[in-house]
């Protein structure tokens, strides 16, 4: 997911997307421990998506970006 796509979302949509990605990360970690995860790079990508969402939410909180 690109930052330009995330910037266009509303705050409620960002919060919902944040919760979804956190759940996805939990599921991926669980699959990794169970030995079912084939592509481990998806964990890294989901972590970056979470960081992007949190950054945009924080920027909006500080009034840097609308």
What does this protein look like?
The protein has 66 residues and is an all-alpha fold. Helices cover 77% and strands 0% of the residues. It has 3 helices and no strands. Helix 2 packs antiparallel against helix 3 (41-62). The longest helix is centred in the middle third of the chain and has 24 residues, at 11-34. 9% of the residues are buried.
Task: Lay out the secondary structure.
Layout: H1 3-7, H2 11-34, H3 41-62
Helix pairs in contact: 2-3
**Beta-strand proportion:** under 5%
What's the count of strands?
0
Order of helices and strands: HHH
User: Counting H and I runs of at least 4 residues, what is the number of helices?
Assistant: 3
Instruction: Name the average pLDDT.
Output: 94
Helical/strand content category: mainly alpha
The first-to-last residue Cα distance is 19 Å
Global Rg: 13 Å
| Low-confidence parts | none
Helical content, roughly?
over 70%
Question: What profile does the largest beta sheet have?
Answer: none
Q: Categorize the overall geometry.
A: elongated
């Amino acid at each position: 997911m690109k930052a330009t796509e995330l910037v266009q979302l509303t705050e409620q949509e960002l919060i919902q997307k944040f919760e979804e990605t956190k759940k996805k990360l939990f599921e991926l970690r669980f699959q990794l421990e169970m030995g079912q995860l084939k592509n481990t790079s998806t964990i890294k990508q989901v972590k970056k998506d979470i960081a992007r969402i949190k950054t945009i939410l924080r920027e909006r909180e500080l009034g840097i970006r609308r």
